[in-house]
Amino acid sequence: xxxxxxxxxxxxxxxxxxxxxxxxxxxxxxxxxxxxxxxxxxxxxxxxxxxxxxxxxxxxxxxxxxxxxxxxxxxxxxxxxxxxxxxxxxxxxxxxxxxxxxxxxxxxxxxxxxxxxxxxxxxxxxxxxxxxxxxxxxxxxxxxxxxxxxxxxxxxxxxxxxxxxxxxxxxxxxxxxx
Length: 178
Prior knowledge:
Layout: H1 2-13, H2 20-50, H3 53-67, H4 73-88, H5 92-112, H6 120-125, H7 135-150, H8 158-174
């Protein structure tokens, strides 16, 4: 049995034992596969460089690991600073806009953390005090935000806007984003 296996390996490995036409076909197929494999490798590199899969899958993770803080945290802190600045400007329309942006930011964060729901109200129904300790205050703040959006005559006082900003700020601190 061992002798038969040795003969088969010797026959395959020694091209002089093959008929010339079969040897030529094998050589052509070998080069065709090399060219095709090279084409596929080039296409793979090209397509991976054109989409964001590697960026989302690996580069952001390494960035978080090296900086020792979440990748999106820097953007959220920057956005939060703009919201606080807008809320302190004193104009009622700016304060309303700041509350709406703060609420939308919480909605985005919860969505990116994997909490399902079509809007913030649905996401808050699925949460408890372990995730967000001030969830009842946040629900109340979201209700006021809804009133701001759907009732154009709703007046937002400076004290009320300051209180709502503090609720959102506490939420961000509890979630360790600021």
